[in-house]
Amino acid sequence: MNKIIRVYKAIKQEKYLIILLPIALLFVPIIILTKNLILLRFGLIHSDRIGHFVTDTALYLIDKKKIAKQRKLFDFLYFPNKISNQQLEKMWRRKVSIFSVYLIRPFWLIFSFFNLREHLAGISETRCRDFKNLLPKNKNIITFTPEEIAYCKNILKINKIDEKKIVLVILRDSNFLKKTMLIKGKMHLFNYHNFRDPNVNTYKKAIKYLIKNNYHVIRMGKYLQKKLPINNKKYIELFNCKFHSDLLEIYLGSICKFCISSSVGYDEVPKIFNRPILYTNVCPISDIQANSKNFMIIFQRYFDALSKKELTFSEIVKKNCHEIYDSFEFKKKRIFLKKNTSEEIYQATKEFLNNFNKKSFKKTKLQDFFWTSFKKEVANKSTYCKHEVFNAKISEFFLKKIIKIIK
C-alpha cells in the first residue's frame, strides 16, 4: 500500500510520468528477459544531501566494480533536481554516465515498485554506512583535475593558510535544513533530528587549543545560525568567507590533518579521502562509526528522565533506544540525552592529536573491554546500523568516565 501511495504522489508531482510510465512498462519484460546477456540497471545518484552524495555513490561504484567482473552490465543514472555540491556533481560525472531524469526515472520507479533490486543502481545497499571498511581499500574513487588542485592551493596561499596544518570542524546546525529543504514554499520540518544539534560553545576550548598549537581551524557548514565568537585569524567559518566555493569545500576535506565532527553529512567528505575523524556527540549509540583505525569517538549518554539514572548498554537496548533517530521518540520513552561536555571534547581532541602525531592509537584493556561489550550488547542487536569491523578508538578520558555503563 505504501508503494502505491509513493508512486501516486510521484505521478501527482511529476506529470510527465503519466505518459512515460506506461511506455517504460513496455520495455520492462525485454530488460528482464535479456538480463543474462546484459544486465541493465536504473537509478539515481543521491545528490540532495552531501553525505549521501559522497559515500552512497562511492560504495555503489565499489559494488558495481565487483559485479562487473562477473557479468556484463550497463547502468542508467540520473541526478534529482537538487544538487548539494556542484563540485561533487562535476567529479561524479567524470566517473559515471548521467542521463535525463525523464528517461530513467520511470524505469527506476517501476523496478523499485516491484522490488527488482537486480535492476536498481546508484545507491549501495548499505547506503552511506561503510561497515565493511571498503573505502580505505579503494583509493582514488574520486579525484581532482590538476587545474582544480592548482586553484585551491592558490586560494590557500593568498590567504596564508598552511594546508599541512588544517583542522576542519563540522557541527550539525538545523538552520541548514530550514534554508534548503523547501517543499512548495513550505519548510520541510526536520526538527525530529534536533537531538543531534550540539552546543557549539562546548567546542570553543578544543578549537583554542588547536589554534595555540598553530593549526588553522576551519568550520564547515552552510547557513550557520550559531556562530562561535573566536576572534583569531587562524579560525575561519568558511561559508562566510569571500573565498568560499563548493570546490574548496571538497578540497579541504581531502587534505585536512583531521576533522572534528558531530556526526553530520559533511564528514563523509574527509572519510572518502581517508582523513582521520574525531566523532563527537554521536547519537544514537548504535550509529558509532566503528570501522576505521582513523576514527576516535565520544558519544551522547542516555539517562532515565524520571530516576535520573544513567542507562547501561544493555538497558538502552532493552528499551529499544539504541537505533532511535527521532527526538520525539526519545521523549516518549522518557529518555534524556546528555551531550558531550566542553572538557570531554577538549580532552578527546588532545588525545586524538597526540595519538595521531605518534601515528598510532594505543590498544588498551579498556578499549578491548568497550568493544567486547559493544559488540555483544549493541552491535549484535542492531538492524539498521550494521557493524562488522571494529577498528576505531574511544577516547580514553571519556571511557574512564563511563566505565559503569559498559555492560
Your description of this structure?
- The protein is an alpha/beta fold.
- The chain has helices at residues 2-13, 17-33, 50-68, 86-93, 101-113, 146-158, 175-180, 204-212, 246-255, 268-272, 313-318, 327-332, 342-357, 365-377, 396-402, and strands spanning 39-44, 73-78, 120-121, 166-170, 182-183, 186-187, 216-219, 235-237, 258-261, 277-282, 295-299, 301-304, 335-338, 393-394.
- The protein folds into 2 domains: 2-128, no CATH class; 146-405, no CATH class.
- It contains 15 helices and 14 strands.
- The strands form 4 sheets. A 7-stranded parallel sheet has the order 8-7-4-9-10-11-14, sandwiched between helices.
- Helix 10 links the parallel strand 9 and strand 10 (277-282).
Strand order of the largest sheet: 8-7-4-9-10-11-14
- The figure for the number of domains is 2
Reading the helices and strands in chain order gives HHEHEHHEHEHEEHEEHEHEEEHHEHHEH
Q: What integer is the average pLDDT?
A: 90
Could you give a quick summary of the protein structure above?
A 7-stranded parallel β-sheet has the order 8-7-4-9-10-11-14, sandwiched between helices. It has a 3-stranded parallel β-sheet with strand order 2-1-3. It has a two-stranded antiparallel ribbon with strand order 5-6. The protein contains 15 helices and 14 strands.
